[in-house]
Amino acid sequence: MPEPEPLVMRPEPGTISLRAWLVAAAVMILIVTAQLVTVTRGPNIHQDETTILDLGRTFLHPHTDWSVDIMVSGQPVALVNYLGSLIQELARSVTSPSPVGPRVTSMAGAVLAAALLANWLALLGASASAAMGLGFLFFLDPVFFGSYREARPDCWAIALGLAACCILDTLATDCRPAGKSTRSLLLAGALLVVALFIWPTAVLLVPLVLWRAAACSRRIGKPGNTLRNLLPVAARMALGGLLIAIPILIPVWGLIRDTSSLDALLHNNLAARTTFSIAHVLSNVRNLVQISKLSPVVLVGLLAGLVTPRSRTLMALTSLLLGVLLVTWVYEMRIVYLLPYLLCLTARLEETRIGSFYRRALKPAVISGLVAWAAFVTLGVFTASVLHWKTGKDPAVLSESALDHIGSGPHAVFLDTSALAFYYVGRELGWHMYRPLEEGEGAVPYFEVAAGLLSKVDFAIVTRDTAPAMKDLLIRKGLGYEVTLLDFAIDRRYPYRLALGHAPYGPYLLYTRRSGRPSR
Question: Could you give the 3-state DSSP secondary structure of residue 510?
């Protein structure tokens, strides 16, 4: 019989001293200060950021007749998982038209997530230096960095999931019976459920929390009674989740009852992306390789799982989630949710058979090298590429163009995906903005939805590289070319400055309504 997987990496869990936390806090303040220098200028405002904000807006104004995410049904997108979008929309309202509010809110969540990861790894038995190093690596990792700098709520969802793991492993360390841990277990379940309502992709964290719940039940229960030990833990966590889910669901009960809206949303975001074809899987494998080039944690974590004998369960969970992603969609903002799994696998390299040599030399070298690479990309390459554009990355240029050529008021404005950069200023000016949700601006559903939207707008802002078929559609709908906006000269001798979406805003083509009725 194989030896059961232990709860911790070492017999005694590691701890992080107050002094270590204070030093880490000082270093984190320096890192955050460096990031704040470019918080408004990079990355460019694009689809994920505006979609999240618009979900928050439509939650607060459910009867709105415009949106930058219009489905084939003609309805704006609405999600049951509205908490993250609501937080970001409220932050936007404070700093509008600047994007600083939602981006700083996400950065604060990322700091919390990094601290909780370090604490969790210490509870699992990692040394204080390794846990702190991996916490900094998490915060600086280019993939996670891209998430919170684009004002996504992933960081808050991950922080809540990690907080639930910390609670469970603290209970396991204390070895208190389930009956005396009710409040903590209720809280752990509630935190996981709130994470799911922050953003739907947080479902990828559920196996991680359940893994720690199972480990906790083995530690606080009686030997040999695996199922009987797990049931009271699971029941208390489920009750905590239910108690918090009920009040959260009340504001969106109408959406839950509207099955047609949910069916359309599921088709657009899940069914349309899921396929078991070899070509699709290979395409996702290529995406994973590209992400690994940007974030070596992906490759290092997977390799660590293969060479660490006692990481079988965690490696199996990670492999299962990767398999799910390979038949759906692999891109950076989904891999973010695998980083806690991968970083935990990396920490467990301490159990490899190379023993003391690894603990003394190799493991610190691996972690230090990964942190150095992440800092080079996020604090070095990113900052240099943003600061290179003195005006081209400044959102103020968007405000100037919007005021000069369209002005304030409830103007109906069509935006293609690249022109979503005007979303913040458009909200401030009172525009009614429209964009089809459908994936791929060369796809038939996109043109079908766009045709209907273009019939009722007065302006359209599209990229200069928009497809000829789209330009023809604009003209047929009664919109004529007016002017090119923000045509900055791009120096392509330095390709790193264009990496990770760091090109300046523009150029955009402005189309305006001509006299007469649009053709159908």
Answer: strand
Sign of CA dihedral 386, 390, 396, 402: negative
Could you give the 3-state DSSP secondary structure of residue 63?
coil
Check residue 264 and give its pLDDT.
Answer: 54
Nearest-angstrom CA–CA distance, 269 and 290 = 22
Cα torsion for 10, 144, 158, 109, to the nearest 10°? 110
Cα of first residue to Cα of last residue in the chain, in angstroms, is 72
- The Cα 76–Cα 256 span in angstroms is 15
d(CA 459, CA 226): 64
pTM: 0.90
The DSSP 8-state label assigned to residue 417 in this structure reads S
Q: Which helix (DSSP H) or strand (DSSP E) does residue 483 occupy?
A: strand 479-485
Q: Which residue has the tokens 């690479």?
A: 373
Most confident of 155-169, 298-312, 338-352, 389-403: 155-169
- Which of 111, 115, 100 minimizes the C-alpha distance to 151? 100
> Which residue, 175, 168, 257, is CA-closest to 214?
168
In this predicted structure, the answer to whether residue 495 has a pLDDT above a threshold of 50 is no
Q: Which residue has the higher pLDDT, 186 or 16?
A: 186
The percent of residues above 90 in pLDDT, for the chain, comes to 54
